[in-house]
User: Which sequence fits this backbone?
């Protein structure tokens, strides 16, 4: 799975436009307003889809380069419901920058906020480090966040914190396994093929499980994350946390 993700990012990087709006927080914020006004009615407020297709999944499976998206937004798709947007080029680029930010790795988003304050919150009062590791320090059973800025979009990280049961990412899901001999195991599924599954249990011990030993697997939609960060964290604290997490990456930052 990690291999597939890495390959996707490479394809995306290759096709990346040099337009200065992409990855620019102010352009993204302006694009978000325009998107709410002109696009959200059909594509959903965060691109999840509706009358128009899901713009986040398309991004993940068939990356569309920024120039192609610019053309589609400006000219529409003739013969379909997708209208042409009669707006100046810079506004179209702002919208493209916003749509791109929904799927681009968080490390490319230049997330605003106080990184140091976010770091203190993460390792301190927010309690994140009790369940997550970064660079070999921290706890279990949450997934290792050392490379989270390269693996997930800012939007996915935000959703993981605020609405963990809605995050829509299928990796690192809570799972309960019943073995043929009657034993059970609960933990987080970190890797899965047709033949085997890697599960980290609550104590942080990895288990490699052959499917031939398994009677039943139940993935839980209910997250193991605390569900009250939405009320516990102020807007500013959330932003600082995102600024810190989005910069956690084992990849060198883009120039
Ligand atoms: C009236 C509904 C509607 C509105 C408003 C709308 N779209 Fe669409 N959009 C669609 C439909 C339907 C499609 C699928 C067209 C097709 O069949 O190829 C589409 C396709 C797209 C695609 C191509 C997706 C793909 O996977 O090929 C992009 C990108 C897109 N829209 C972005 C936008 C943006 C950005 C806006 C706002 C400026 C917007 N759309 C406004 C309905 C809409
Ligand atoms: C009680 C343990 C616990 C605490 C506390 C906790 N998490 Fe988690 N977190 C998890 C588990 C377990 C998952 C795996 C998926 C799930 O259950 O939702 C997860 C998933 C995540 C993910 C998604 C990872 C991915 O692969 O996409 C992010 C991001 C995250 N947590 C960030 C945080 C942050 C930031 C905090 C602190 C504000 C925090 N977590 C606090 C247990 C925890």
Assistant:
């Amino acid at each position: 799975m990690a291999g597939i993700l890495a390959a996707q990012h490479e394809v995306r990087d290759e096709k990346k436009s040099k337009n200065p709006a992409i990855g620019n927080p102010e352009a993204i914020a302006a694009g978000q307003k325009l998107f709410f006004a002109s696009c959200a009615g059909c594509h959903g407020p965060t691109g999840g889809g509706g009358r128009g297709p899901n713009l986040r999944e398309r991004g993940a499976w068939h990356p569309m380069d920024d120039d192609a998206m610019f053309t589609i937004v400006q000219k529409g798709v003739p013969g379909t419901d997708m209208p042409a947007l009669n707006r100046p080029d810079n506004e179209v680029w702002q919208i493209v920058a916003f749509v791109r930010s929904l799927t681009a790795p968080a490390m490319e988003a230049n997330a605003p906020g106080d990184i140091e304050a976010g770091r203190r919150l993460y390792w301190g009062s927010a309690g994140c480090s009790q369940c997550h590791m970064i660079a070999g320090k921290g706890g279990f059973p949450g997934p290792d966040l050392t490379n989270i800025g390269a693996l997930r979009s800012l939007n996915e990280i935000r959703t993981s914190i605020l609405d963990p049961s809605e995050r829509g990412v299928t990796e690192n899901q809570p799972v309960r396994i019943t073995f043929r001999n009657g034993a059970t195991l609960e933990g987080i599924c970190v890797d899965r093929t047709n033949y085997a599954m890697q599960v980290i249990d609550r104590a942080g011990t990895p288990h490699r499980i052959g499917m031939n030993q398994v009677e039943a697997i139940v993935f839980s939609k209910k997250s193991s994350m605390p569900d009250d960060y939405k009320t516990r964290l102020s807007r500013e604290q959330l932003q600082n946390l995102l600024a810190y997490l989005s910069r956690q990456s084992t990849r060198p930052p883009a120039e």
Q: What stands out?
A: The pocket of heme C (ligand 2) is lined by residues 126-128, 130-132, 141-143, 148, 152, 157, 160-161, 164, 169, 171-172, 174, 188, 223-226, 229, 241, 245 (CB under 6 Å). Confidence is low (pLDDT under 50) at residues 1-14.
